[in-house]
Amino acid sequence: MSYATELFTQTGLGLLGLLVFPGGLFALMVGLFLKGLDRRIEARLQRRVGPPLIQPYLDIAKLFTKETVMPASANRAAFLLAPLLGLTGMAVCAALLPVPGVSGGLPAMGDLLVIFYLLPLPAIALMVGGSASSSPFGAMGFSREMTLMFAYEMPLLAVMLAVAMKVGMATGGGAEFSLANIVDYQLANGQLAFDPVMIPALLAYLLFLPGTMGTVPFDVPEAETEIIEGPLLEYSGPALAFFHIASALKTVVVLGLGVALFLPGTVPGGIVANIPWFVLKCAALMAVSLTLVKSATGRFRVDQAFTFYLKYPSVLALASLVLAWRGM
């Protein structure tokens, strides 16, 4: 195969992964489904009927029929580009994500670290959009989002390093930052969720999820009853739809990342069985770490949220990192 043919093939596969599967259309459809399921389960727990499962799809479709209204004093370029920033970052992350038993995701050097650097983009997009809107509520949401992001990024990094160190030490090398290799190791040697050394890291990751997704009790940047959606207050139409799409993609990315890091087991049946199995595991992680928590708790203050992440997830993740480093 010539270099030009190989380059053309790799480019085509890259675009397919980015636009269709495992990212793109697949990630969007799964993300919107999970958001609908989350709202439905929460409603049932609160003894409400709740919206239909397709409500997130309908919300996105309706927003694209509306006009984007912008404050006269807003910074036009930053206001319009902010949602695209978050959407692009999550689209790339979704394409890198392995679906165990189906796809290893787009190959990338150290893709675990690439995902770590891209994951904050939706939060950064919220901060840029909120500050560009010229709304005081947007500025307040900017401040809260920045504070919270500093808090939950540290346990995430420690969790990733713990998993990378555990797999790397077991395979006789240094830290392993390839998600495909991490998944392959677990398929051959057992899932890390059942390894006593990695259980603190798994708990830390479950505690990380509501913070990065901005759900109760960590929804302080967009608190409806306090700052009226904060950074999103002035957004409408397609611009707001792009924020919701980025959030749906991020739902798949963070839940799918948890599956790849701790629960990548497969079932017989090939693609037909393992795609639903992957979605089911994502839904289970969502129900445990997001839906049940927000149904049973109230909102933290921003200082309480910051202190929580420094005290609990960080300590749990660091414990697994130290144990993995010592080869236990």
UniProtKB/TrEMBL annotation:
TM segments?
Answer: 12-34, 77-97, 109-129, 150-169, 197-218, 239-263, 275-293, 305-325
Instruction: Write down the membrane topology.
Output: Multi-pass membrane protein
- PROSITE patterns documented for this protein: COMPLEX1_ND1_2
Q: Source organism's superkingdom?
A: Bacteria
The alphabetized UniProt keywords are: Membrane, Transmembrane, Transmembrane helix
Q: Which cellular compartments is it found in?
A: Membrane
Q: Which named protein is this?
A: NADH-quinone oxidoreductase subunit H
Species of origin reads Nitratidesulfovibrio liaohensis
